[in-house]
Amino acid sequence: MEIKKVNLTDQDFNRLIRILDNTLSSFNSDIQSTEKKEYHAFNSVSDLTDAFVAFSLEEAIGCVATKHYATEVLEMKRLFVNPIARGAGIATKLVNTLESQAYSDGYKRIVVETGKNNSDAIRLYTKMNYQLIDNYPPYDGLSNSVCMSKNLL
Rounded to whole angstroms, what are the CA distances from 122 to 14, 23, 35, 131? Predict the structure, then answer.
C-alpha cells in the first residue's frame, strides 16, 4: 500500500469523494434535507488545501484531505476507505500521513467533525488519541455532528 499526495483535481481523489458522498447520503438518511445541504456546503473540494490517496496495486482505495482552519489548526476532511479495502489499517495510515504533513507544515492541532451515527470514525479517532470537544464553527448548533481534536507533538 502506498499513499500519495495528490492535486485536488486528481481523478482518483474525486472518484473516492463521490463514493463517500453517496455513502454518507445513505448513512445519514435520518437527517433532514436542510441539514444535509448545510453539511454538503461544508465539504466543498474548493476549500481544501491538500489531499492524499492510498493505493493498493495501483488502485485508489482511500483518501483524506485537509483544510486550513485557523492559525496552527488544520481540519481533517473527507477521510474515506472503500468498503472492499476496510479492516487493513488504511484509514490509520492515511491519518498518520496527514498528521506528519501537518506537523511538518507547522500546525499544532488537528480538528475533525464526523456524524454522531458514524461509530467507526469516532472509534478510529479515539484510538488515535483524538479527544471530544465542543462543536466548532460551522458545526456548532448542528445536533448530528461530533467534533474531536488532537494536539500534535
Answer: 24, 17, 20, 10
Shortest CA distance to 66 belongs to which of 55, 74, 58?
A: 74
Listed residue (60, 42, 33, 35) closest to 111, CA to CA: 42
- Amino acid at site 58: E
Cα–Cα distance, 55 to 15 (Å, whole number): 13
On whether the CB atoms of residues 117 and 28 are closer than 8 A, the answer is yes
Bond into 138 cis (ω within 30): yes
Please check whether residue 80 is in contact with residue 16, taking contact to mean a CB–CB distance below 8 angstroms. Answer: yes
Q: Full-prediction pTM beyond 0.70?
A: yes
**Averaged pLDDT for residues 127-148:** 95
Three-state DSSP at 26 gives helix
Residue 27, pLDDT above cutoff 70:
no
Total Cβ atoms within 10 A of residue 58? 7
pLDDT in tens, 104-134: 999 999 999 999 989 999 999 999 999 999 9
- Of 36, 11, 4, the residue nearest 22 (C-alpha): 36
